[in-house]
Design goal:
The complex is a heterodimer. Chain A is built from 18 helices and 12 strands. Chain A is an alpha/beta fold. Chain A has 2 domains: about 260 residues, 3-Layer(aba) Sandwich (Rossmann fold); about 90 residues, formyl-coa transferase, domain 3 (2-Layer Sandwich), CATH 3.30.1540.10. The radius of gyration of chain A is 25 Å and the shape is elongated. The relative contact order of chain A is 0.14. Chain B has 2 domains: about 260 residues, 3-Layer(aba) Sandwich (Rossmann fold); about 100 residues, 2-Layer Sandwich (formyl-coa transferase, domain 3). Chain B has a 6-stranded parallel β-sheet, sandwiched between helices. The chains are: A alpha/beta, B alpha/beta.
Chain lengths: ~400, ~425
């Protein structure tokens, strides 16, 4: 018999959109939470407009990102600007344990959907608001995307070559970090409520949460006054350390010599006994002082070899090394395949699609990823009839009032 | 808010953040270090650049709110003692390579036999099994194996990482979620389980689903400084200001058109573009870029020149101020000192002053990752000194005698 999922019985009303918020609740859906996700035709979810697209066609149900962060959720369409629509939201609040939202603070208050109002409806509700820089302060109304928060909190300037302008990390970096804190903040609040009966409000600034991924650089400034900047792929405590050119166009391999043993093994692998004998390179301090020389020696060896051959030869000797896999190669990565990272599921319009599965395993109660992200309003009938117990008549009234747009 | 729980944290430098987050949530987290201190204490930078186990800023960054004991778990006596500590433990976190702790009789099966309710969390580079499970690893190796760096950096240079190591942080934060889900289930079943977290799979989140390019039949994207190349398009998000750089979400289509329209109005008011350019259909422009061929690409490049002239004429602060007033998507590319000096973070009282009495100083730490209305997260303890809580935990809490403790210390077990 199939196991009961860990979060079975947890009910979440999800008013979040784009990536940061929805990625935070996706993992809760994988483990059994019932998530009713509200969308509106009046405001198309930005994630539905982002690449990559199914067969390169930019249509609302084709975005890989949208599919990836909304799998396993129920979809209902409600116009929050419509008073009747908001009455449905009130009923969903009565049903829910948790309400999540990522609107501007002003919008929720104007709709009467702020925490003070929801608490009147359900005193022990847990409500989480997430936005770029938090609910208060001069940037509270700063709408925007994770590339902006990634710039404001320092990731962009810490990614680049010392002789060039900052390159910045790929994409909307805080959107990849902050969802973790969204999910865990909800789980901790649920545990607290179970023990005490107390609900509460959670104000999440995606920028503030993501700063926990820059701890040593922040302390280097607050304790030492040093302003760290992008150092290419170099590491202050390891050498050689870099991404080296392999044979082929734009092919690369990452190599990290984390200790003296790795250095000896690397020299043996690349058949450079002369480097091994050179006393200048015996210690990490010595190797750090001669990185350009060492990088040239390694490149002379790597550039004649396929990146996967480099990985195999160096890993065989215990040296941390890996081909820089292209996006298409990642899909056939033997480790990701072995772990079942990619999951094929049924989709209403595409037949089958492939999304990412859970990023971890629970030995006794593993995730269940078997339901595609909803099309707009796909679950209206189910949510209104089964969850809220509305009559056919009442549902028709909602349609006529334009509440379900 | 998680104060009823106790955590034994045996992680190496890879998994420290997991225990710190649980400690920030209020759990009693005991960092178990080898005698002499965790190897993570040897990682720089150091307070005032003085290498010392109690002055590693890497250690400080990821061990706040924990207590520390020393214990040699490679020794029989050490293993016995660890098992005694298990009685009152809810979570056990480790980040050794698969099988390392099992070889010491401290694997999941060993400990679950003693305490079935234990949630045992393993954080590893590639997960507990599979062809790469025993790979030699590092931050850079995992980034190469999971996608983000192939899309990061200048196109005429190698793929690039963020200069502050990130891979194990993604895994450690994911591990907190996993542990709390397992705990939620344990409340119902009374049973614990083995939580197996792969850093490779965790980091894949940082591809923004571009990792699905192959199964979706999409060509994907390639790297470019400050942006991304999609087919013939060079999408730029980073722009030069008078005194540095700014990030701009300069995109088109239904989701972005209204922001771009406001930006173009601002540029036009200040004479950086004409009205015809300003009044283009910015919704349709998104589609045009992908279907308009060389002409569209050339038009976009022309547009980028206009925007660059505009951003270069202003400081980062002027651009941010205008963006906030006008609802435009511009943010400064902040340096670390600017981040710490941010008016926004100050207004929210984000930074926390933590006392380090033995250094007679106070250090400013990044504050709680979320603000709870009823159970605000508190910084109760600075990161512990090596074995700072040996007496407190072994004697007061485990009931060990002074003599027993001295004996184990002289044998080098503690």
């Amino acid at each position: 018999m199939a196991h009961e999922l860990p979060l079975a019985g947890v009910k979440i009303l999800d008013l979040m959109w784009v990536m940061a918020g929805p990625a935070g609740t996706r993992v809760l859906a994988d483990y059994g939470a019932t998530i009713v996700r509200v969308e509106s035709a009046r405001r198309v979810d930005t994630a539905r407009t982002l690449q990559p697209f199914f067969k390169r066609k930019p249509e609302p149900d084709n975005s890989a990102l949208f599919q990836n962060v909304n799998a396993g959720k129920l979809g209902i369409s409600i116009d929050l600007g419509n008073e009747t629509g908001r009455s449905v939201i009130h009923d969903l609040v009565r049903w829910a344990d948790v309400v999540t939202e990522s609107f501007s603070p002003k919008a929720m208050k104007a709709w009467g959907l702020d925490y003070a109002s929801l608490r009147q409806i359900k005193p022990d509700i847990i409500m989480l608001s997430t936005c770029l820089m938090g609910q208060s302060g001069p940037y509270a109304r700063f709408a925007g995307f994770g590339n902006l928060a990634g710039a404001i909190v320092g990731f962009a300037n810490l990614t680049g070559w010392s002789d060039r302008p900052p390159a910045g990390p790929f994409g909307a970096y805080t959107d990849y970090v902050s969802p973790r804190f969204t999910a865990m903040a909800i789980l901790a609040a649920l545990d607290h409520r179970r023990r005490t009966g107390q609900g509460q409000y959670i104000d999440q600034s995606q920028g503030e949460a993501s700063l926990h991924f820059l701890g040593p650089a922040l302390l280097d400034y607050t304790a030492n006054g040093r302003v760290q900047t992008g150092q290419g792929n170099r590491d202050p405590g390891m050498a050689p350390h870099g991404v080296y050119a392999a044979a082929g166009t734009d092919r690369w391999a990452a190599i990290a010599v984390t200790n003296d043993e790795h250095w000896q093994a690397l020299c043996t692998a690349i058949e450079r006994a002369d480097l091994l004998r050179d006393e200048r390179f015996n210690t990490v301090a010595g190797r750090l002082a001669h990185q350009d020389t060492l990088d040239a020696a390694i490149t002379a060896w790597t550039k004649a070899r396929d990146p996967f051959e480099i990985e195999a030869l160096l890993q065989a000797r215990g040296v941390p090394a890996h081909a820089v896999e292209t996006l298409h190669e990642l899909y056939t990565d033997p480790q990701l395949q072995h772990r079942g990272h990619f999951v094929e599921i049924d989709h209403a319009t595409h037949g089958k699609i492939t999304i990412e599965g859970s990023r971890f395993r629970l030995s006794r109660t593993p995730a269940r990823v078997d339901r595609a992200a909803p099309t707009l309003g796909q679950d209206n009938q189910h949510v209104l009839e089964e969850i809220l117990g509305y009559s056919e008549e009442k549902i028709t009234e909602l349609v006529i009032a334009g509440a379900l747009e | 808010m998680l104060s009823p729980y106790r955590v034994l944290d045996l992680t190496t430098e890879r998994g420290l953040l997991c225990g710190q987050i649980l400690a920030d949530f209020g759990a009693d987290v005991i960092k178990v270090e080898p005698p002499g201190g965790s190897p993570a204490r040897r990682l720089g930078p150091f307070y005032h650049d003085e290498p010392h186990p109690d002055r590693s800023l890497y250690w400080w960054a990821y061990n706040r709110n924990k207590r520390s004991i020393t214990l040699d778990i490679r020794r029989k006596e050490g293993q016995t003692l660890l098992k005694r500590l298990l009685a009152k433990t809810d979570f056990f976190i480790e980040s050794d390579h698969p099988g390392t702790l099992a070889d010491l009789g401290l694997g999941y099966a060993d400990l679950a036999a003693l305490k079935p309710a234990l949630v045992y969390v393993s954080i590893t580079p590639f997960g507990q099994d599979g062809p790469k499970a025993s790979y030699a690893d590092s931050d850079l190796v995992i980034l190469a194996a999971s996608g983000p760096i192939v899309m990061t950096g200048d196109d005429d240079r190698p793929p690039l990482r963020i200069s502050v190591p990130q891979a194990y942080l993604h895994a450690s934060a994911e591990a907190v979620i996993a542990a709390l889900i397992a705990n939620h289930e344990r409340v119902r079943s009374g049973m614990g389980q083995h939580v197996d977290v792969s850093a490779q799979q965790s980091v894949a989140q940082a591809t923004q689903a571009y990792i699905l390019s192959a199964p979706f039949g999409d060509g994907g994207a390639t790297r470019m400084a400050g942006g991304l190349k999609v087919g013939p398009l060079k999408l730029s998000l980073a722009w030069p200001a008078r005194d540095g750089y700014v990030s701009i979400t300069f995109l088109f289509g239904t989701a972005f058109a209204h922001f771009t329209k406001r930006l173009m109005h601002w540029m036009c008011e200040e004479g950086f573009c004409d009205e015809a350019t300003r009044d283009k259909d910015w919704v349709a422009y998104g589609g045009y870029l992908f279907t308009g061929g060389a002409e569209a690409v050339a038009d976009y490049e022309q547009l980028k020149l206009l925007l660059e002239r505009f951003t270069k004429s202003k400081t980062k602060a002027e651009l941010l101020q205008g963006a906030l007033q006008r609802g435009v998507l511009i943010a400064p590319v902040a340096t670390v000192d600017e981040v710490v000096g941010s008016e926004q973070l100050a207004a929210r009282q984000y930074w926390q002053e933590v006392k380090h009495p033995e250094l007679q100083t106070t250090i400013r730490y990044p504050g709680p990752f979320v603000k709870y209305s009823e159970t605000p997260l508190a910084y109760r303890r600075r990161p512990p000194l090596v074995g700072e809580h040996n007496r407190e935990i072994y004697m007061s809490e485990l009931g060990m005698s002074e003599r027993e403790l001295t004996d184990l210390q002289s044998k080098g077990v503690i």
